[in-house]
Amino acid sequence: MPSLSVLQLTEHIQRVLETELEPLYWVVGELSDFRQAPQGHVYFELVEKQGTQIQAKIRANLWQFTYRTVASKFESVTGTTLKNGMKVLAQVSVTFHPVYGLSLNVKDIDPSFSLGERARLRQETIARLSSEGWVGHNARLPLPPVIQRIAVISSATAAGYGDFINQLEENAYHYRVYHRLFPSLMQGNEAVSNLITALEQVAQQAERLQLDAVVLIRGGGAQLDLDCFDDYQLALTIAKFPLPVFTGIGHERDETIADLVGHTSLKTPTAVAEFVLSSFREFEEQLGLGAQRLDRMTRNTLKVENSKVQEVALHIKGLVKQQLSRDLDRISNYQARMLQSGKSHTKHEHGDLDQKVVHLKKEMQRFLKLQREKIDQQEISVRQLDPINLFQKGYTRTESKGLPIQLSQLEVGDSLITYTAHQKINSTITQLQKK
Fold it and tell me: What is the model's pLDDT at position 387?
């Protein structure tokens, strides 16, 4: 077989490819090493992967004129530009150059395929998270009564972050919320790793900063710019996160997977800020209602107890009057018997009678004194039952959550209400010592 030069061989390959191949093919592949030359031409590779392993790749180009048409149509449909990592359906012609080798000349890119591929991958991710039990996992974390300390994951220069901070700090009620920014990219190829790193940093500092929740926010954007929020690893990190995660991605159409696995999803960063502030308002309203209920219960209780005291006092007075009446009748009987006995006695017994009268008087005085002491003691007991007398002696009544403190499970931070004779004192437990 005669030998060929390199040029002859490459020209032969070129002729064979031009003869045997179709003029155009539709090819599915992932954009890699995507770059635009100063002249306006675009060069990249179409890659096929199995997991993270590259199975095949081929050089491709989009000439300036074609690129303008293709890119404009793609952006108008998808809302984003062509970029690395994007899976596309491209119409290509296969070319072979003796110097530059085999490559593809891209004629068109179907934007509807990229949207459909995105939807398919998104649905697969949702199905996987659901089967593994992560959907709704973060939502089961309890929220504190008031969300006072939050970590914010966003881009420091994003308009959505600025809107969030303004809404938080310029609220009409002058509530104050501690917030700490953990900056991250919010779109692009590095966004997922940035977001996961930011969440890991929050988890490391959550206890030291005493955080109540995490806020993940960004402003509005193109549909494909939100692809990072549909990533499985990011969604898994959010679902497993030890604090409630609030999302305000700033989009009105589709719910991202990050929204789905987070604790609470809101449409915009401003809505997230309003949600945080609403916890203050609700807590304040509950405190007011609780104070009203406590005041009403206290008044009713005092009214009932006062009625009971009055009933007891009336009952005791009735008993005392009955006892005095019986005693007076008994005394009258004694006097009558003594007078009758004195008349029937002879003069020689007069002296003995006088002695008996004196003794009787002493007994009467002793008896009356004893009865008076009983009455005085009963009156003291009645007065001691009056809560007002107890308050005036310096005693107080302290309640927590509507119950006397001896019936309550007290904890640091609980509110107390103390009643004195002339004051109602609100206080908060800062320390408990068991005794």
Answer: 73
How high is the pLDDT of residue 220? 65
Please tell me the predicted confidence (pLDDT) of residue 346: 64
> Left if phi > 0, otherwise alpha if psi is -120 to 50, otherwise beta: which for 37?
beta
Query: So what's the pLDDT on residue 432?
Result: 87
Nearest residue to 81 (alpha-carbon basis) of 47, 51, 55, 44? 44
Tell whether 79 and 179 lie within a shared domain. Answer: no
96 and 42, same domain (yes or no): yes
- As averages over each run of 10 residues, the pLDDT of the chain (435 residues) reads 86 86 89 89 90 87 90 80 85 89 91 76 84 91 92 88 90 89 86 92 94 88 71 93 90 75 89 90 85 88 89 90 90 86 68 81 90 87 74 85 85 89 90 83
Indicate the burial class of 219 (C-beta count within 10 angstroms; 0-12, 13-18, 19 or more): buried
Task: For the chain, give the number of residues.
Answer: 435
Domain count of the fold of the chain:
3
* CB contact set of 29 (below 8 Å; sequence gap of 6+): 46, 47, 48, 58, 87, 88, 90
DSSP state, residue 182: E
Specify if 23 maps to a domain: yes
39: which residues sit within 8 A by CB, 6+ positions away? 64
Beta strand pairing call for 87-97 and 415-419: unpaired
**Which segments of 181-268 does DSSP mark as H helices, in order?**
191-209, 232-240, 257-261
Same domain? 193 vs 83: no
- What backbone phi and psi angles, to 5 degrees, belong to 101? 80, -160
Q: Which two tokens stand for residue 87?
A: 């899976």
Assess whether 66 and 148 both reside in one domain. no
Check if the beta carbon of residue 400 is closer than 8 Å to that of residue 407.
Answer: no
Same domain, 146 and 173: yes
Do both 146 and 108 map to the same domain? no
